[in-house]
Amino acid sequence: MTGHTPSFRPSEDDVEKQQVHSETRIEQSKTRDTEEGGLGAVAVLEKNDDDKFNRDTGSRPSESTASLDEYPPPNGDRIRDVSTAEEELPREDTGAVGRVVSSKSSVAPEPAPDGGLAAWLVVLSGHLIVMNTWGVINSFGTFQTYYTTLLSRPPEDISWIGSFQIFLLFFIGAFTGRLTDAGFARHSLTIGAVLCLLGTFATSWCTQYWQFFLAQGLCVGLGNGFVFCPSLAVLATWFHRRRALAIGITASGSATGGLVFPSMVRQLLPRVGFGWTMRAIGFIQLGSFIISIIFLRSRIKPRRSGKLVELAAFREGEYTLYASGAFMCFLGVYFAFYYLASYAREIQGMSYPTSLNLLLILNGMGYLGRLVPNHIADRIGTLNVLVPLAAISALLMYCWMAVSSPAGLYVWSVFYGIAAGGIQSMFPAALSALTTDPRRQGTRIGMVFTIVSFSVLIGSPIGGAILTAMDGSYAGAQAFAGTSLVAGTVLISTAREVKRRKAGQPFWTKV
């Protein structure tokens, strides 16, 4: 017998033990969510456990710290993916089995399909939801005029109905956004649809101010809040490269509703009365909500645990500046949608049906404002498009003070409809681009929605109060809306600059 030591070949039992060992290490892996929600798992095996295992089996120790990919199971089976990272495992020592530490939250979900039947059906669902929410809100000018005459109340009192409706739509976003992340988007949509329909049909029987406020302001507003944020949060997970375009098509639902509902009021109100006009609107909403509930489907695996509000997001300069800019923009952008028709009648001497034509133009041009800028944004960046749109809207609001003829008012409505429509659609698209983790879309969108809710709550009533204080002169209210848009433009532009510098990119870059 010589001193030669024969090479050791693991027995079948050792091979099986090694295979079980590798699989167990995967199952015992611990993951943690990063601040930005980065995805993907990089598993690193501690060297001492690997060496100990090799000593147990007699196999050759690794030259360096082994990774799971460098040391696969002998049978060639592929290592199973680590799924969600929501349930963290305890940190106790796992001995020879080894401890696997994940540097990211989880294995990345499949890339967004950016198309396909299921994705475009989600877009259709979102379009119909926005039609029934923002389409009605953008049509409130028709109700503003009618209620002022019917109830003999000042304009600021009537505008509280519409502004409270928008307030609830945004404010509830923080809660429904978290529900969406947890996998309850369809439940939220169903609850919201029921509330919207209940409020719309109840409005048809209202005769007093407090009744209109409770039915159309409170009940419909609650319903809007339950349906709007989930539709955007779910949609954002289906698209990446074409996300801005998809959101633009969805947001154009407000233009659809802004054309359909004022036209219905104009045609039906003189013929069948207010009650049946509202019921007809309710039946249209019923059919479209059914379609939305059927086709709205989440793609991302639900994130069951998590905070309702992620305060860490506000440590990101661009996120905080963007939220502040959105607050200021929405403080003034809806003034025209509420008061354009009354301005046309009181200042330009137009009839009630003719004044509604301006609202139809304002909302109809929203198709261009929502589709064209969003299509461009997919190529040059959402913030690069939103900043000039906000600046143009501010300029147009000041120009409104100089309009002195019906023809000029028609022209102004065309341009402001495009610019304001662009702000409304680019706002969620740019906000979505500030969120890197698709599982947090609902929460982070909902947080900004809640902030914006207070600006839309007080914006139009402040304009109405200024209008009353100036004895029917619109100049002060127009200046207030324009100045709010200027402030919003500055803040959003600063948010863009912070994001650009953080990425170390040149000034003219896609942001």
Give a short summary of the structure.
By secondary structure, the protein is mainly α. Helix content is 68%, strand content 1%. It is built from 18 helices and two strands.
Q: Which class of the largest domain in CATH terms?
A: Mainly Alpha
Strand content: under 5%
Q: Tell me the count of domains.
A: 2
Within CATH, the superfamily of the largest domain carries the name MFS general substrate transporter like domains
Strand order of the largest sheet: 1-2
CATH architecture of the largest domain: Up-down Bundle
| Tally of strands | 2
Q: Could you report the average pLDDT, rounded to the nearest whole number?
A: 79
Major sheet summary line: 2 strands, antiparallel
The N- to C-terminal Cα distance equals: 75 Å
Determine the number of helices (DSSP H or I, runs of at least 4 residues).
18
The CATH topology of the largest domain is what? Growth Hormone, Chain: A
- Which class of secondary structure composition applies to the elements? mainly alpha
What's the assembly state of these chains? single chain
**Poorly predicted ranges (pLDDT <50, ≥5 residues)?**
1-10, 20-108
Q: How much is the radius of gyration in Å?
A: 28 Å
